[in-house]
Structures are given as structure tokens and as C-alpha cells.
Amino acid sequence: MSYDYIIAGGGCAGLSLAVRLATSGLLENRTLLIIEKNPAKGNDRTWCFWETQPDIFEPVVHHRWQHIYFYSSSFSKLLDIAPFQYKLIRGEDFYRHCHSTLQKYPQVQLITDQVQAMGSDQHTAWVKTDRQSYTSGYVFSSIMPAEINGGRYHQLLQHFKGWFIKTPVAAFNPNEATLMDFRLLQRGGTTFIYVLPFSAHEALVEYTLFSPALLPDADYDAALKEYISQFLKIDRFEVGQVEFGVIPMTNYRFPLANQRVIYMGTAGGQTKASSGYTFKFIQKRTQAIAEALQRGLHPAKAQASAGRFAFYDSVLLNVLANGRLEGRDVFARLFEKCSPQQVLRFLDNDSRLLDDLRLMNVLPKIPFAKAAWQEFVNR
């Protein structure tokens, strides 16, 4: 069977692209097939990001904050991030919105199947599943490769466990979130908590680490209990939903495309290597792809940001992976010496080169210079 476009993987990246293709008019005279092995998704995750202007998924933003706390042993402050807003989208809301939007387009078909292989030549892309083979003009894939050839690349894991808690008495200010709280034992890597209140009685409290290996499950629970008691001063609470996730933090160079197979999501390098943030970079990438298609261009080169940021990420990963500095000290310096807007633009790959140099100037010179030289030689 043949389609104009095929999306392999119906998660965040695949559905984001599908919605953009549909709502931009690109499917007016074209067909789209989405292949997903497990399309029934509930509230399996949350996505957080910051932005100054609403994007197409603004209708499913669950909560937003314009004031965020940063805590460390050396610097703590409540930061006004205007004109940015820090936003959270719940998985179940995102999936429901995407599927209900795509149901309005009869030229979009979603099937449940397992992708076994894919490839292309100069003119046609193809996908082979458990049950059938399909061809198309382009295949857009967010399916991760079975293995990443690490080689000289740095590889850390961002792993986290979060509790959605409810308290019998008012315990939170829903207008103020905690972006990072480093007042914790650093468990063999960068370790922090973030707290996202939805009301005076409800919040997501998440324990996060950047380290080479996962912890025993009981250790995440113990850390969450200790933080809620010691720092939030909450004695009574109920745990509702629980989320757990692992995000690769690597400067491995994921390919953007293989002829007419275009990669997206983590598989396309849209997980920021130095922070693990993914959602906003997926949106930049899928928007760039949609714009390229609208202009009749090959989407393989639909870049979303300047390439120098990949080098910055490699340098920071080098610093963290080699223990040159603790992550909490790096982030504390950034938020203490720079405006939060400068830091957020930098982390979003949206800053200007001159601003980058000013920001780098506040960091310890020797460990970063050594890491930068090593990464330059490796490249």
C-alpha cells in the first residue's frame, strides 16, 4: 500500500508532526499513515517547557507558572521569568487532543502494528511491519535504534520518579513552581527535585538525577519522602499517580535523515543532551519539517537551531561525565550571575552568540576550557 507520508511511531514526535501536517493544509490532497505499536496511551508522562508565545498545543497546557524557585546551597531565589511561562502538558491530554484532531481528517489512518524495518532510495521510502509493507514519499520516524554506538561519545541517563500528591491542608502556592532544588545529597551525579503545584493542595514532586546508572526503586521513594518532609514540611499527603522515566543524555550524533527517512524526537537528536528537555525541541523540529514541505523542499535539512549548541552540550556533558564540576554548581552559577531569561534562552538554543559568551564568562574557566579543548579535538 502507498501513502504520501508515513509516520513511524505515534508518540509525542509522531503525533506532533501529524497535527502540524493536518492543520497546515498539507494533507488537503495527500494521505498519511501513522504506525504505532501501542496507541492506547493514558497519563504515562508529563512534558515541561517554557515559551513566550503560545504554540499549537496551548489548548492542552495543564498549568503554567511565571515565577520559579531555584535552590542550591550557595544561591536560592524566586525568579520572575516573564515574558516566559513555564508550562506543563499531561500525556493523557496531549494524546486525546491529537487523536481527536486527526479524526477530523479522513485521509489520516492510524494502525496498530510493529515496525520491523524501513529504508528508502532517492525517490521512495518504505516501511515493513509485522503484517504488511508500505511505501511513501517520506517516512518520518521517532523509533529509537536498538543500540547507540557509544564510542567516544558521552552517555548519561536522566532518570526520575515523580509523585502527584494531595494534601489535606493548603501547602502550595499554585503560582510558584520550583524548577530545581539542589539541596540534596548528590547521588553520584547531578541530583535535584522539582515541584510543580497545580493548586493549594496538589503538586507534582519529582526526584531527578543525571548519572550513569539507575537507582533501586526504593531509593527514589525514600528521597521523595525525605524531601516532602524536610523541605516542604508536609507530614500528611496522599500519592495519586506515579511517573517514572529515563531519558538518554548523550552527544551521540543521531542522524537527521537517511535519504527519504527523516528522524524525529530523541531518535532525531531532539533531546537536549545537557538538560534532557525534549518537548520544545520536538515542536521546533516538526514545525521546520512542515514548513519545508509547504515550500516544496526536502525536509532532511529542516534544522531547528544553530549547530554551535551541540558543541556547548558536548562540553557540559564532558564536564559532568568526567567529574570536573558538580552540576549543581554549574546551574547555581548560571542562575545567580545571569538573568533567568538569559539562561532559559540559552537552554532553548535561542540565544545570540554574544549572549552565549557573556553567559560562559560566569562559569569556572579551567574545567570548561579543558572540556572544550577535548571536545574540539574529538570533533
Give the SSE map.
Elements: E1 2-8, H1 12-23, E2 32-36, E3 46-51, E4 61-65, E5 67-71, E6 76-80, E7 85-90, H2 91-102, E8 108-112, E9 115-120, E10 125-129, E11 133-141, E12 155-166, E13 176-181, E14 190-197, E15 202-211, H3 217-230, E16 238-250, E17 257-258, E18 261-263, H4 279-294, H5 308-321, H6 327-337, H7 340-347, H8 353-360, H9 365-378
Parallel strand pairs: 1-2, 1-11, 2-8, 5-13, 11-18
Antiparallel strand pairs: 3-7, 4-7, 5-6, 9-10, 10-11, 12-15, 12-16, 13-14, 14-15, 17-18
Helix pairs in contact: 1-2, 1-4, 5-9
Write up this protein.
This protein is of the alpha/beta class and 379 residues long. The protein has 3 domains: 2-41 and 91-148 and 252-301, FAD/NAD(P)-binding domain, CATH 3.50.50; 155-249, D-Amino Acid Oxidase, subunit A, domain 2 (D-Amino Acid Oxidase, Chain A, domain 2); 308-378. It contains 9 helices and 18 strands. The chain has helices spanning 12-23, 91-102, 217-230, 279-294, 308-321, 327-337, 340-347, 353-360, 365-378, and strands at 2-8, 32-36, 46-51, 61-65, 67-71, 76-80, 85-90, 108-112, 115-120, 125-129, 133-141, 155-166, 176-181, 190-197, 202-211, 238-250, 257-258, 261-263. The strands form 3 sheets. Strands 1, 2, 8, 9, 10, 11, 17 and 18 form an 8-stranded mixed sheet that branches. A hairpin with a 4-residue loop joins strand 14 (190-197) and strand 15. The longest helix has 16 residues, at 279-294. The mean pLDDT is 94.
